[in-house]
Amino acid sequence: MRFLSLLPVVLLAGAAHAETLTLYTSQSPEIAQQTVDAFQARHPEIKVEWTRNGTSQLLNILRAEIAAGDVKPDVLLVADTINLGQLKAEGRLMAYPEAKVEAYDPATYDKDRMFFGTKIISTGIAYNTQAAKPVESWSELLAEENKGQIAVPSPLYSGAALNHLHSVIDVPGIGWDFYRKLAALDIAPDGGNGPALKAVASGLAKYGIIADADVIRARASGSPVELVFPKEGVSFITEPVAIMSTAKEPKAAKAFVDFLLSDEGQELVVRQGNMPIDPKVAPPEGFPALSEIKLLPMDADKAVKTDAQVREQFTEIFGG
């Protein structure tokens, strides 16, 4: 069982009239801390309390709160659009038509302005440079010598992995057959990108299906890992932010959205090692140009409608 990590961040504790913004996020603890600190530096009048976990786990908690009539978060900052699309369909999100997204690709935010992408994170193939050779395609991973040697995050836990699953199941040359062959190689998807990266970096696994920034940061820190963008294409997420329709502090929540979409927020994305969505902000060192990567689009509306079926089929394949 994975335990919820509740990490409150309090600024100006003595200020009796400070607004308290409650954030649920799937960002790693270190990155979430940086995001909250940067926001509070810009808005010292707002105190932030935040909770982090995998997107699917956070949504399970949120569902329980909805059932109990006690929804705690004002704002969500999670990995993918699928879960937010479901919440939107249920009337759980607040529209923010004034959000400043004019300079951004419309594909990065909801057409009704109920959630907004904050960065671009693709999922590729990581490999241990001391134990494995680079591959060019997803299908090359499925060799018998890789049996039990591929670290795969679970879409039942990780939002990025769920987005990846929905993005590839209808792609020729990948599809459900790829996952069936993974299962035949005794691969058991589990947890999120962090544990998968540790498995590859330590040599416990030769390969991993991992988000780009995690691998690039590890490589820059000296880990024996490298990243491949397979020729069939890669899935990508935008780590969207959304305001709950039940937000107790909607003004503070809008300020948080504004910050993430601002020049300052996008420059923070780069410092954190991710690709910004703002086209005028240069990406971090070590990232290829987006023009060099084949991105696999996801039909978000279809994903929302078929998510339960897709999760069920995934569970059947891996015997969960």
Automatic annotation (TrEMBL):
Q: Give the matching InterPro entries.
A: Ferric-bd, SBP
Keywords of the record = Periplasm, Signal
Q: Does the record bear Lipid biosynthesis in its keywords?
A: no
The reply to whether Signal figures as a keyword in the UniProt entry is yes
Q: Where is the signal peptide?
A: 1-18
Q: Which Pfam families match?
A: SBP_bac_1 (PF01547)
* Protein name from the UniProt record: ABC transporter substrate-binding protein
Q: Which organism is it from?
A: Shinella pollutisoli
